[in-house]
Amino acid sequence: MMMSEYYTLPLAVIGLIVIILFLLDSIWNILQTCRALLSPLFLPAEETSLLKKYGPWALITGSTDGIGKAYACELAKRGINVVLVSRNEERLKKTAEEIETKYMVKTKTIAADFSLGQKAVDTVKEKLGVLPINILVNNVGKQYEYPMYLSEVPEQDLLDIISINVGAVTMMCRAFIEDMKKRGSGAIVNVSSGSELQPLPLMTVYAATKAYIKSFTAALRFEYSRYGITIQHLAPFFVDTKMNAFSKKLQRNGFLIPDAEEYAKYAVMTLGKMDESSGYWTHGIQTFFTKFSPVWLRTYVGAHINLNLRKDYLLNRNKQ
To answer: Does residue 230 sit within a domain?
Structure first.
């Protein structure tokens, strides 16, 4: 009994310290989010200028729709020229013309399929030539057609998800980070997902690739931030994009599910101010409460959300 009491107090103290540290970290993230979103309202434009801080050219992968296109538009709105990288030549041309006309910046388009691995990265580097990239946004991604059990997912889809979500972000960072190091400045934004926070049944491989991005980005920041390179990890929850079009429940729904334009407007504001961000204020709240629950509970809830989304998709498909 005495031994039990001997250990109880230290364990209770350790538990209290862990809770306090978690709360302090969460409060700090909330304060950082407020700073990122409010600073443009109170600081002179030049002090919040991404163009002045990083330079005139950004490269965005997966940039012809969804978050990638919206992020490219937000950068262009700030006077930054954009290199648009995606698979479809026609959509690239259309997006480039739209951005040039609306924001009066330069654009460059590169057609590359990141499911081809290093070949796509080599294509990007070859097409760029000596053009320096000041901001790299690794946005390209692929997920399941709808929530599925592993054996239901086509083999090629699984290989593509791994190649695009893991291979592309890794090799694109490697391709550009040394030049940023030599210049002593630059920014890399790796777009992940809130699904990284726990194992996610019925999106098993997709969630695992996003957990990789989280870990990879944090380690990369440790290696290279001392060279003046901003390395940001973005982890949005649901955004109304083509990627989530398998369910009507995931289409824009009040303030919890923003469209890509609304999301990108806030996400770009956090660049250079937050290393880790959900990118959108309500997603930050969701992240806070998600982290507050144990992993087993997050996994259980995530599984049931995906089961309902799967049911919704199959029901609508059968009606067609």
So the answer is: yes
